[in-house]
Amino acid sequence: MTVRPAIPFHRVVLRAVLAGTAVFTFYMVLTIGGASGQTVPAHPLDGYPGFGRSDAASARDNAIALWEAYLREVTTQSCMQRQSLYYAIEVHFPSEPMKNAAEWLDIGRGSSPPNAVTNSAHRATLDARDLDSHSQALYGETAADMERGSRSATPGEAAPEHAFASGACVGEASDAVGSLWDLRRDLVDAVRAFEATVRDSAALLEARAQFSLCASSVSPLPGGYPEQLRASYDEAFANFHVVGHDPFESGYQAAIQKCAGDWLRSYQDALTEAYPEFIESHGQLAAHKERYEDFEVRASQDAAFRDYVASRLFEVSG
Amino acid sequence: MQLSRYSRLRVGVAFGGLLALLGITTVASEASHTTITSYDHFLWATTTWNNYKVYLSSPRHSNSRYRGECGWEENANGRHWNMYSGGSTPSVPGNDLAARGYHVVVSANARDDGWLINRTASNNWGADLHVVTHTNADDGCPDSVQYLLVMYRDGNQNSIGLKNRFISALDPKVPGGNASWNCYGVWGECAAQAPHVAYVELFFHDNQPAVDWFQTDYGNGDAVYQHSWRYGYAVDLHLGYP
Fold first, then answer.
1. What is the CATH number of domain B34-239?
2. Number of domains composing chain A
3. pLDDT digits (tens, 9 = 90+) for B163-212
4. Of A95, A234, A249, the CB nearest to B236
């Protein structure tokens, strides 16, 4: 029998901490998917603001959106000031996309949060009459309706001409500045329908057959491409779902892992081939691109914007 | 007592497992039913992004806790469901929105009447789907009214389609029947600019059996644990698995 030297207790603790950290890190990677998700490959629409799919193009879109949101706030503030009413610039933007945009704009974290009195703090100082005037001037709604988040009306009655809380100064700013997302909102479903057509096209007949054959070797679920397989899986899962017992999950995951890579390569090639026609038939895309051509220069020269974003980064980064 | 090297190793690994469990519990509890926060939570798609951005809006009632709740407060109910649906705490791995390829924001649920902050953030980010999740009340706890309510924009086919998918995915499991009605022009968050909007009142938080359905087992909500994946399922069905 081999006699092994005893291990000092502090080394046991050290190993325990290292093992714990490794398991914890593995759990975090599994559940959160890394700090910034999966890298998205280049896409034929990457050059069109609002339609960026790759990481860089998506960050550029966030940067434009953040700048436009700031400009709308500046316009809202001017509108309120014309009526001798207080309004502080407050850009509401999800924190992670804001950091992503700031990074693209090369804006670092400031040394303090925005120092203006917040709008909610200001509104808290107003009496009922002034608060109502403030709400009407800012949103075109009464203070009571704003607090409730709804217009005093009976559910089901005909919708008014404008959306709730989208009029007055907020409406003026929205009209004046616009948004890069307007065209995206108009076309996002057309893009989806177009890509679905490509997915089902004759050009990918062979790729679908290959995927199907490959998937069937590890999963009983039918599917000619990953999304179809996902739909089959969902249908089976919805019918048999019991937490802790899922007879289809391992097969589905194995099929994706084994077969999706080849499919994606063929699909990307088909998209690249087909997209010029889509772009040509949607002339708005070219005009939209032109509109944002000098965005980077204008945003980089807007010192007040950059200072504001830096102070917000302080706020969201702590 | 002198432990062998192997025994010490086993002690070390067991202790390490305990530490890991402690860490995991700490992270998982971030999504717990007790969380009230003024910070949003972002979830990157964990597979290739499918080009859709989903804003999951949570309640921000200033009087949450005093809205007739039999159990957890309304603001917590909405965010808790959203966190599971989005994928922060995956109950059914691979079935949440992030795992299906969506970028997801789960809004803050601070008690600040900040519904407009959620709508504005969603608009500014360019969300493609804006989904509001609240819980409902009739006359305060205890009450007998219970149904799933999904509101939509009248005349908007995207919103009507999404509403139908939510009802068909959720109604088999949410207690009681279902209802739906137009919310555009009435409720502020229905006017979010996302092309696809739905406003869900998941259950009545002043109905004790419904609250029990939502809260019991697993320590953090049986219904949340078992059924939050149905949001991702409904959205994928609605969009045709983009």
1. 3.40.630.40
2. 2
3. 999 999 999 989 999 999 988 877 899 999 999 999 999 999 999 999 99
4. A234
ipTM reported for the complex surpasses 0.90 = no
What are B228's two structure tokens? 């939050």
Q: Do A103 and A154 reside in the same domain of the chain?
A: yes
pTM of the model: 0.87
Domain boundaries, chain B: 1-31, 34-239
Residue B30: count other Cβ atoms within 10 Å of its Cβ: 12
Burial of A287 by CB count in 10 Å (0-12 exposed, 13-18 middle, 19+ buried)?
A: exposed
- Inform me whether the C-beta atom of residue B26 falls under 8 Å from chain A C-beta atoms: no
CB contact residues (below 8 A), chain B span 155-194, against chain A: 158, 169, 181-191, 193-194
Q: How far apart are CA A255 and CA A248, in angstroms?
A: 11
Chain A residue numbers with beta carbons less than 8 Å from the beta carbon of B183 are 155
Q: Tell me the nearest-neighbour CA distance from B69 into chain A, angstroms.
A: 18
For residue B62, the number of C-alpha atoms closer than 13 Å in the C-beta half-sphere is 8
In a domain, A130, yes or no: yes
B37 CB near a chain A CB, below 8 Å?
no
